[in-house]
Amino acid sequence: MKNLLIYYFAILVPVPIMVWSVFNDKMLFVILLFSYFIYRKFTDSKRLIEKGLIQKNNMWKIFIIPFYTSRFFKELYFEK
């Protein structure tokens, strides 16, 4: 996921499904929202590992430490 457009596509594809579920099934929305947070942590960690900013054995920090990826905001969203 070194290409920035692929990364944006990967993180934005589930959003329309979540918006649809808000209007149709609230319980489904809650499940999808929880799943999306976990999905985003995986995609962010995969991108950071591929860019060489974190090591694979430090991936657990993204799941445990709140806002850990905010240190890499510029690298995640703006740099190729």
Question: Could you characterize the architecture of this molecule?
Answer:
This protein is mainly α. The chain is built from five helices and no strands. It has helices spanning 4-12, 14-24, 26-51, 60-64, 73-77. The longest helix has 26 residues, at 26-51. The model has no long low-confidence stretch (mean pLDDT 91).
Could you list some keywords that capture this structure?
globular, mainly alpha, 80 residues, single chain
User: Helix/strand-derived class?
Assistant: mainly alpha
Mean pLDDT: 91
Q: Which stretches of 5+ consecutive residues score pLDDT under 50?
A: none
**Overall 3D shape:** globular
What separation lies between the terminal Cα atoms? 9 Å
Number of helices: 5
* Tally of strands: 0
Radius of gyration, in angstroms, nearest whole number: 14 Å
- How does the major sheet shape up? none
Order of helical and strand elements: HHHHH
What percent of residues adopt helix (DSSP H or I)?
A: over 70%
Beta-strand content: under 5%
How is the secondary structure organized here?
Elements: H1 4-12, H2 14-24, H3 26-51, H4 60-64, H5 73-77
Summarize, please.
The protein is mostly helical and about 80 residues long.
